[in-house]
Amino acid sequence: MFLSLSLLALVVSQFVSIAYGSPISCDEENVENVDEIFPRAPTTFKHPGVLVNKAQLDFIKGKVNSQQQPWYDAYRAMLADPLASTTRSPSPFATVACGSRSMNPGDGCREEREDALAAYANALAWYISGTQSYANKAISYMNAWANTLKAHTASNAPLQSGWSAASWSRAAEIIRYSNAGWSSADITKFENLFRNVYLPILIPGSNSNGNWELVMMEAAIGIAVFLNDGATYDKAMTKFLGRVPAYIYLTSDGSCPKAAPGSGLTSCSQINNYWGGQTSYPENGIAQETCRDFVHTGYGISSISHVAETAKIQGSPSDLWTTDVGTRVQYALGFHSRYLLGQSVPSWLCGGSLDLSGGERDFQITEVGYNALNGRRGIAMTNTGTVTNDNRPARGNLLFVGWETLTHANNPAF
Questions:
Q1: Helix, strand or coil for residue 87?
Q2: How confident is the model at residue 16 (pLDDT cuts 50, 70, 90)?
Q3: By three-state DSSP, how is residue 168 classified?
């Protein structure tokens, strides 16, 4: 009997390896293996429930209204941002055409992304202040685009859709579930915009650099919450859970990183090429785009953090912060923070040279992960903490990240 069970375990492990890549083994206690998570939607979706929930919003509101730091200064910085202005007007396009780098063509790319972020800023301002003009402005952005947008085209269409819909879903959740005055007819139009324009281009995913598929799944999961759409949530979460271990490396993965399911990468040489020519992996936390630059790497880490936070709010498929997903974010943040703070680059890493772009100020993506892992779970993350504090109040990136010192700094609520 013992031999039979052993053989059965070997067969099962080989099947998992073929289907998903080498199994992950983590030494941390109570860390769930990503391969073992069964993606599933919650029985009942919680609202508001994309990136922030009611308890977190109420925490922020209380801190701002009592002028406590760092939330009060972060709130004032958000209100000073032109995107939060109640005199700014939406600029919807019927067709948003975005080529490489959102240029050639670049029709409506910046306008869509920034209008979505503006809706989110005004939704936050409405919830915190109770000032109706902020709610009205957020609604005006969503209604304008719901009544106009028909398609995304050109090579960057999937990425553009992900960036914009990630922000739209946060704004829409807050406005819909805070008695802001958004009519049921207009909500239905926005639901149809998500179903007919965004989801068809998001759900198939992407085999481009990993930050593409990660933000696309972030957006699709946010949309699924807004639509109470369990099937879409499951599809997007399945792709997300396959992409995360193919984006952030742990030494327990083996001699080279995992490949995302469906990527077509079947050898370490192919994976190394996809990882920018990196050929050795002696440390946890290296990312698929580390050898490209830290800005794009930050995009990917940010989307992973956003999905983990939304999954915790929804309670499904589990609290991802306590799983392999959280472990990968922990190490990725710490690994990249070290070099942002001036540690010399070893010769084995990206040929001894890293593109840090704008340095710490271009890495304003740490608040969500740092709060979840250090603040709520108590994990020591000294370098990440230094970068996080140096960036406060964090503004974001004018793509899909915005005002996360306000929303997630030292926020214990759940």
A1: coil
A2: very low
A3: helix
Do residues 401 and 116 touch, judged by C-beta distance below 8 A?
Answer: no
Residue 33's pLDDT band (boundaries 50, 70, 90)?
low
Can you tell me which residue has the tokens 């960057």? 156
Instruction: Report the predicted TM-score, pTM, of the whole model to 2 decimal places.
Output: 0.91
**Strands annotated E in 82-210:** 95-98, 106-107, 151-153
User: What order do you get walking across the sheet with 106-107 strand by strand?
Assistant: 106-107, 95-98, 151-153
52 backbone φψ class: left, alpha, beta (φ>0; ψ -120 to 50):
beta
Helices (DSSP H) in 177-293: which residue ranges? 184-193, 199-202, 210-227, 230-243, 268-274
| β-sheet bridge partners, residue 287 | 248
CA-based torsion, 404, 407, 411, 414: positive or negative:
negative
What radius of gyration do the chain's Cα atoms show? 21
In our burial notation (b when 16+ CB lie closer than 10 A, e otherwise), range 367-396 reads bbbbbbbbbbeebebebbbbbbebbbbbbb
* Mean pLDDT confidence for 98-104: 93
Owner of token pair 């709060």 = 371
